[in-house]
Specification:
This protein is of the alpha+beta class. Helices cover 22% and strands 13% of the residues. It is built from two helices and three strands. The longest helix has 16 residues, at 2-17. It starts with a helix and ends in a 24-residue tail after the last strand.
Length: 100
């Protein structure tokens, strides 16, 4: 009986390892299509960011998923000079097409 229980536990752990990991917000960690982002946003973003995971948030700015060693978190999408990239609703930040 104990051997059968141990085999069941090991099989459940192996099956759990095959599941897709969940990212921020419970979504699977799959890169979004380039078509989701305006080309101007991709051109404005600094090189060390994952622009293909970026999305427009309720604050009016673009945020991207940063996959750290412990957790995945959302960080603001920044330009080379450190300004946040925002849509038209984000006041005081860099707006694609209207960059200064």
């Amino acid at each position: 009986m104990r051997k059968q229980f141990s085999v069941t536990i090991v099989m459940l752990q192996l099956l759990g390892a095959c599941a897709a990991p969940l990212g921020v917000g419970g979504k699977a960690n799959a890169p979004s299509d380039e078509k989701d982002l305006p080309e101007a946003v991709i051109q404005l973003a600094a090189a060390n960011q994952n622009v293909y995971s970026a999305r427009l948030q309720p604050d009016g700015c673009y945020w991207y998923e940063y996959h750290g060693p412990v957790e995945t978190t959302l960080l603001p999408l920044l330009t080379d000079d450190g300004k946040r990239i925002c849509g038209e609703a984000g006041a005081g930040e860099t707006t694609p097409g209207y960059a200064t």
